[in-house]
Design brief:
The protein has 448 residues and is of the alpha+beta class. It has 13 helices and 10 strands. Helices cover 44% and strands 13% of the residues.
Length: 448
């Protein structure tokens, strides 16, 4: 009888075990269809990769983003909610298209579109913080956060809104990295897990209560401060009520209320923050802004949006949005925008070393010329004028045009108003003057 019971129990569970095994093998097979192109982020709870889908004939489609999220940490549920809503026909203008979600072991795998563009951090760094930038970007950011809160029966709270998680292009704004986003639960006193970037996260996100839509309102206040100052508020900024020479008083009041310690003292939602900001803009002095040819977010490539046929579900229609008009003009920036700021700084250091090398060689030719060299017999003032004119009026403008001038504009604010066309005209003019100066002075060199 004991053997019969054991056999009966095994037979009862066998179909369930087979279903789970088949589902697991199917997930592994789906996962193997993607080729990893780059690892974008890695943490104890999540790995983010840029991948390409490989067809049976070897053809590839992409790029896409694949996230592998630890289920035991209680993360990733927001992606499944967004996927379900999109497959039910819901269209989101500011959220990425979720292509697939499936489990591999104890990890949730999410496949989504690859969002091209620049982060808000890059936009502010490249264009420099200003009222004009905030006036153009911040209302759209409020709309994007509002869509996350109002687009579902139960609001989704992002909990990690920060400059690097806001993607902008010429005609879109997308909120990314929703790994720690959660649904609001009325019965909860506080969040089960405490995640997020501390500088942009409210106190309740770290054990002082449950997060709700006002938690993202707090982050919106921090993001507004960032757009105006390019700084993340520290303890001193909070003690001083976010006062800064770059923050007009009406906008300071908006930031202070949005980032109040007590959620009850904050704005009720993103739409209310937007209204308050627009009222503050009307009360603030207009900020003149000269459009620079280097100021343009990169436009998304056509293939960055996923064909509907690739997902087997209707693809949301992304409505065209006004460009970041005050910061868009030249296609030249499309390449520059894809170059990370760190790479640009390294490139500038290389060019600086090249200039130093030229300077050392020129100085040696001026003060210690080799006997018999051209110009060795010329008077010292004539050599100095000719050789340094060659360095500063011919070589230096070329190195300047080759440089990534984003860091230079930060150090020398007057350069922010210079367009690419104006820089080219000035550099060419200096080079022409230098050419004639070097040519004329060399006529006075004694013959060798």
């Amino acid at each position: 009888m004991l053997v019969t019971r054991v056999r009966s129990r095994f037979c009862y569970h066998e179909p369930m075990m087979l279903d789970e095994l088949a589902e697991h093998l199917n997930a592994l097979q789906r996962d193997d269809c993607y080729r990893v192109d780059a690892v974008l982020k890695e943490s104890p709870y999540e790995t983010t990769e840029r991948v390409y889908f490989r067809g049976e004939n070897g053809a590839e489609l992409g790029p896409f983003v694949r996230k592998s999220i630890d289920r035991d940490a209680g993360l990733g549920g927001a992606y499944e909610r967004i996927r379900d809503a999109q497959r039910a026909g819901r269209r989101f203008e500011h959220l990425p298209l979720i292509i697939d979600c499936y489990d591999v072991g104890d990890r949730l795998v999410v496949i989504m579109e690859y969002v091209a563009g620049e982060t808000l951090a890059d936009i502010v760094y490249r264009n420099d913080p200003s009222i004009s930038l905030a006036r153009d970007v911040f209302p759209r950011l409020c709309d994007a956060v509002g869509e996350l809160h109002e687009g579902f029966d139960v609001p989704l709270i992002h909990r990690d809104l920060k400059p690097s998680n806001i993607m902008l292009s010429r005609d879109s704004m997308t909120i990314i990295d929703l790994g720690i986003a959660r649904a609001f639960k009325e019965e909860s006193d506080e969040d089960t897990r405490h995640f997020g970037t501390r500088a942009y996260a409210p106190p309740e996100q770290f054990g002082f209560g449950q997060t709700d839509v006002r938690s993202d309102v707090y982050a919106l206040g921090m993001l507004l401060y960032f757009c105006l100052t390019e700084k993340t508020p520290d303890a001193k900024a909070r003690r001083e009520g976010y006062a800064s020479e770059h923050v007009p008083e009406p906008m300071r009041q908006v930031i202070a209320r949005a980032a109040a310690f007590d959620p009850a003292d904050r704005y009720a939602g993103a739409a209310e923050v937007k209204r308050a900001f627009l009222e503050a803009v009307a009360r603030s002095a207009p900020a003149p802004c000269e459009v620079s040819e280097s100021q343009e977010p990169v436009a998304p490539s056509p293939e960055s949006r996923v064909p509907a046929a690739a997902v087997g579900a209707p693809m949301p229609a992304y409505a065209a949005r006004p460009s970041v008009a005050a910061f868009a003009s030249s296609p030249r920036t499309g390449l520059l925008a894809r170059i990370p700021n760190r790479v640009g700084i390294i490139w500038d250091i290389v060019l600086l070393l090249v200039f130093i090398l030229f300077f050392v060689v020129t100085t040696e030719m001026v003060f210690a010329p080799e006997p018999g060299a051209s110009g060795a017999a010329a008077p010292l003032p004539l050599r100095a004028f000719s050789y340094y004119a060659l360095l500063f009026m011919l070589v230096s403008p070329i190195l300047y045009l080759l440089a990534d001038r984003r860091p230079l504009r930060r150090l020398l604010p007057p350069l922010r108003a210079c367009t690419l066309k104006r820089e080219l005209v000035v550099c060419i003019f200096i080079m022409i003057v230098g050419f004639f100066a070097v040519g004329i002075s060399s006529q006075f060199f004694p013959p060798v």
